Amino acid sequence: MYKKITLKNNIRILLVPSKDSKSVNLSIYVKAGSRYENEKNNGIAHFLEHMAFKGSEAFKSQFELSKFVEGFGGDWNAGTGNEHIEYYIRAESSHLKDIVYVLDQMLFHPLYLPQEIEKEKGVIIEEINMNNDMPEYKVGILLEKVMWPNHPLGRFICGTKETVSSFSRDDFTSYQDDFYKSSNMVIGLSGKFDEEQALGLLKEAFLKVSDGKLRSYEPLSGVQKEPKLIVESRETEQSHLCFGFRGYPKDDKKRITLKLVSMILGGGISSRLFQKIRTELGLAYYIKASSRSLMDTGAFFIAAGVNNEKFLQAIDATIKEVNKIKSEGVEKEELRRSKEHLKGLLALKFESHHDMNSFLTEQELLSKKVLSYEDYVKEIEKVNLSDISEVVSEVFVSDGLNLAVVGRVKEEEVNSLLSL
After folding, report:
1. What pLDDT digit, counting tens, does each position of 276-324 carry?
2. CATH classification code of 3-206
3. CA distances from 19 to 114, 122, 184, 197, 360 (A)
4. Residue 79 in contact with residue 24, Cβ under 8 Å?
5. Sheet containing 3-6: order of strands
6. Spatial separation of the C-alpha atoms in residues 218 and 37, rounded to whole Å
7. Which of 84, 188, 305, 411 is most buried, taking the most CB atoms under 10 A from its CB?
8. Considering only CA atoms, which of 213, 218, 153 is closest in space to residue 179?
9. Domain segments of the chain: what residues?
């Protein structure tokens, strides 16, 4: 399915050929992100990702760079998470040489012009303002703050207005020196390409990337001992809530079982929460469940936007559904449907070169073992009803419950409901 090659400087390359494709996708993943930050430099990984688009040695401005990429029909973007930064370009397969050249320029030859840094501070501050103004985004930021207090995982990836305003060119060059090292990166190439030519281009561009000592992250410690609530009262037409529970890390097989639980509870229109909260009770426009795995922890989320006047009823009804899956388990047919749903979503992901690339490359960067599509499907099929019961009993506990709320709600109104 894919081929892994490690260059002499320890950069790992995953090749995923598709002869029937007309395009090619090149992604570069860096093991960095917000969990490697502290209070003082919170937001620098995200800011540095922005600066990769602001000009390089060969492209003196954002306009020159974007004109070149869009001139060969390239679709490009980047993103910063808790544990990685991704850069990618995809285009018609004959432009692979151009793609490699541009990503090399963006990652290893950025200009970091002081005047561009100052302008981008304003852009990112507006991004922070946007997230703060949108309750459905802000509630997620608050939930992470209460789930992982006084820890990098609990801080907003964009940083704060104060940290963003403080960054200088020296901060970016220092961060790049610390994290953009060969053994701290994985390159994923998928689509239509000639392997010999592709490897030649990648070696020419990236063999010169230096290696060195890698930065460690602050591990999570301690166990949550009581339910936690955070409320931001504001005038809104709809109140937004987000429940959070501790989940499983990337290399724990139970994470797949928890993913199936998220499908059963809130993974679609036929899910339990959608049917109860929206269809039967008419309390919400959206309600969904999801799970996420990190290197040493994980999380399970339930998010909803609900009627202001019936907010407490929505919280109560949601908690009852969580308790119900704990006490009664799930039906055999319900588990079968959730497996088919999850396998279907994975199959659709593998129809996209970029999504498939991301799925494999992120695992190579952050996990001990890379699961192919076939491997992942096998793990899904192994899950049985007793596995579901075991996971929900471990995850859905009162002392591990966290709830964030944004809307016309008072903290004392919610406190009495905060238990399982």
Report:
1. 999 999 999 999 999 999 999 999 999 999 999 999 999 999 999 999 9
2. 3.30.830.10
3. 44, 44, 30, 15, 19
4. no
5. 3-6, 12-17, 185-191, 23-30, 85-92, 75-80
6. 9
7. 188
8. 213
9. 3-206, 228-415
Determine the pLDDT at residue 416. 80
How is domain 228-415 classified at the CATH fold level? Cytochrome Bc1 Complex; Chain A, domain 1 (3.30.830)
What residue ranges in 134-237 does DSSP mark as E strands?
185-191, 228-233
pLDDT digits (tens, 9 = 90+) for 244-276: 999 999 999 999 999 999 999 999 999 999 999
Cβ-proximal residues to 379 (8 Å cutoff; 6+ apart), any chain: 253, 256, 371
Give every residue of the chain whose pLDDT is below 70, as ranges. Answer: none
Cα within 13 Å of Cα(97), Cβ side: 4
Residue 300 · residue 262 · CB < 8 Å: yes
Topology agreement, domain 3-206 and domain 228-415: yes
Question: Hey, which bits of 201-257 come out as E strands?
Answer: 228-233, 238-246
Contacts with 399 (C-beta within 8 Å, 6 or more apart), sequence order: 224, 225, 226, 227
Burial class (CB in 10 A: 0-12, 13-18, 19+), 225: exposed
